[in-house]
């Protein structure tokens, strides 16, 4: 059987390594079930030097070196594959995840060290790759969901890979291969709730794949039906494409409540965990899609299997507290109270904005009223609502900035917004690709090397404000410095020849967009 080294690249280097990479852990488990010999080097957890990476690569004769991740891991991935090819010239280097899926043609060009890429969902593709390596007769183009090279260096796309229907057929992630006691459990705490702050042994679970929303800033990693294969006139696959305005598809899939609770009970018994973070894009989407039965059944089984938290005299608890994501238009007081009784401590809400004219452009279907209502419903249920906001939407303006600040005042909160970022694979990236490229002097790879978790600024898609303005306006928003925002608006209007009596929602012509960075 194949000897496989799986590498988790560094992501969000400015933060602590808090999350076991769920996808890699799951693929490792699938590979081992197929009989292959798997080792993991978690570069994100250990944060060691390149010399340590070289030692790991030289430790065995690896048949395959596999890695992947999201777009923000690209810089680390680029460095890892270069070193891997240098140390292991005969190993097959496999790349997957959102970083490859979003731009397969470009990634294969920028990373000549990579032999084959897995596009979209890899649950079936990856073990088929390893079996082909083990057979000694490698012809990547025969495997669905792959991109590889022919003898002349041209790209070969395998047939489309279908998504799996039965998520419950998947094994549990191979958590044992990662430094739980050394790295991840000591970094369990999060500041989102009291229980989150006190968590000592947290693991994450992905209970579902996909989301029914069409948020124009979001990329679903090819796991919810938004990825389409592009064919030439002869029917040959030549590329992949993603959401375009007015053309959306969504596939909703979720584990059964029984599977989810069994996995949580397994982790509780084996690792003595005290907290679970659900990684799902949107728990409430799944609950609505199941006609309100999914979360209720999870909560019922949470109680039935002895996982509902019980507080001890010293402030600790038995059982498992948990957190996840919610949606302003899909939650209701009844389900929120049921979730709290089962141990839900906090829910992250992607409110994005409280400005009506901005919300209409996002594709999320929420209104400012929905946002405010869900916030108080969640508080009243005893769950902490964690609001996420964004600044720098294409039609962001002074009116939207003031609307957000006014909402913060009403809710008694302050939020440091993320910056609107056109991640590859999102609709924003598709329609702004030319302008993004121009901001990086025609070099799209520079954008991937710079793009982060949207807490810092990269490519600009806002037609009213440039990077300096957005950073400064965000700082003044957080400081609640409305006076200086008002003063700057007058300067901004003079600079753009916009009269004081013209609508504040006026958008500067789109030709500014390419120069906004």
Task: Describe this protein's structure.
With 517 residues, the protein is an alpha/beta fold. It has a domain at 3-158: Cobalamin-binding domain (Rossmann fold, 3-Layer(aba) Sandwich). Helix content is 37%, strand content 16%. The protein has 20 helices and 19 strands. It has helices at 22-33, 43-46, 50-57, 74-87, 98-102, 104-110, 125-135, 180-184, 194-198, 257-271, 283-289, 294-304, 333-341, 356-362, 368-380, 398-411, 427-439, 444-450, 467-478, 482-495; strands at residues 3-8, 37-42, 64-68, 92-96, 116-118, 146-149, 155-157, 202-205, 208-209, 228-231, 237-241, 253-254, 275-278, 310-311, 317-318, 321-326, 344-352, 384-391, 418-419. The strands form five sheets. The chain has a seven-stranded mixed β-sheet, with helices on both faces. Strands 8-13-16-17-18-19 form a six-stranded parallel β-sheet. A two-stranded antiparallel sheet has the order 9-12. A hairpin with a 5-residue loop joins strand 14 and strand 15 (317-318). Helix 3 crosses helix 4 (74-87) and helix 10 (257-271) runs parallel beside helix 12 (294-304). The N and C termini lie far apart (50 Å).
């Amino acid at each position: 059987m194949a000897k496989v080294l799986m590498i988790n690249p560094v992501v969000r280097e400015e933060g602590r390594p808090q999350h076991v990479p769920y996808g890699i852990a799951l693929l490792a488990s699938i590979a081992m079930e197929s009989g292959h010999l798997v080792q993991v080097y978690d570069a994100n957890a250990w944060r060691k030097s390149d010399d340590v990476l070289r030692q790991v690569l030289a430790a065995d004769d690896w048949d395959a070196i596999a890695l992947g991740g999201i777009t923000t891991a690209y810089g680390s991935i680029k460095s890892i594959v270069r070193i891997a090819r240098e140390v292991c010239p005969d190993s097959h280097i496999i790349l997957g995840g959102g970083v490859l899926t979003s731009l397969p043609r470009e990634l294969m060009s920028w990373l000549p060290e990579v032999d084959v890429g897995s596009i979209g969902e890899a649950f079936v593709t990856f073990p088929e790759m390893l079996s082909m390596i083990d057979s000694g007769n490698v012809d990547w183009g025969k495997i669905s969901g792959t991109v590889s090279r022919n003898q002349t260096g041209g790209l070969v796309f395998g047939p489309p890979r279908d998504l799996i229907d039965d998520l419950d057929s998947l094994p549990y992630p191979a958590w044992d291969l990662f430094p739980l006691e050394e790295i991840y459990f000591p970094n369990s705490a999060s500041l989102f709730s009291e229980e989150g702050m006190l968590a000592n042994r947290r693991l994450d679970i992905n209970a579902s794949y996909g989301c029914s929303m069409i948020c124009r800033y979001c990329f679903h990693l090819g796991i919810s039906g938004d990825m389409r294969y592009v064919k030439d006139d002869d029917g040959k696959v030549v590329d992949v494409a993603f959401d375009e305005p007015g053309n959306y598809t969504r596939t909703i899939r979720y584990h059964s409540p029984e599977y989810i609770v069994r996995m949580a009970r397994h982790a509780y018994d084996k690792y003595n965990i005290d907290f679970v973070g659900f990684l799902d894009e949107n728990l409430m989407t799944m609950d609505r899609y199941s006609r309100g039965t999914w979360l209720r059944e999870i909560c019922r089984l949470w109680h039935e299997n002895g996982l509902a938290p019980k507080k001890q005299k010293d402030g600790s608890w038995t059982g498992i507290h948990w957190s996840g994501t919610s949606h302003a238009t899909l939650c209701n007081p009844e389900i929120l109270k049921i979730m709290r009784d089962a141990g839900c401590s906090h829910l992250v809400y992607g409110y994005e904005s409280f400005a009506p004219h901005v919300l209409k452009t996002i594709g999320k279907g929420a209104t400012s009223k929905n946002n405010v209502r869900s916030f108080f419903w969640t508080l009243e249920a005893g769950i902490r609502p964690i609001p996420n906001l964004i600044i720098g939407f294409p039609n962001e303006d002074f009116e939207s900035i003031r609307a957000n600040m006014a909402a913060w005042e009403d809710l008694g909160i302050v939020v440091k917004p993320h910056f609107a970022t056109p991640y590859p694979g999102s609709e924003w990236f598709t329609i702004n690709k030319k302008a993004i490229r121009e901001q990086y002097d025609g070099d799209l790879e520079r954008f991937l090397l710079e793009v982060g978790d949207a807490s810092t600024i990269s490519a600009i898609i806002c037609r009213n404000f440039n990077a300096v303005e957005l950073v400064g306006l965000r700082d003044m928003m957080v400081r609640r410095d409305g006076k200086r925002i008002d003063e700057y608006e007058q300067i901004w209007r003079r600079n753009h020849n916009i009269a004081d009596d013209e609508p504040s929602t006026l958008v500067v012509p789109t030709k500014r967009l390419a120069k906004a960075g």
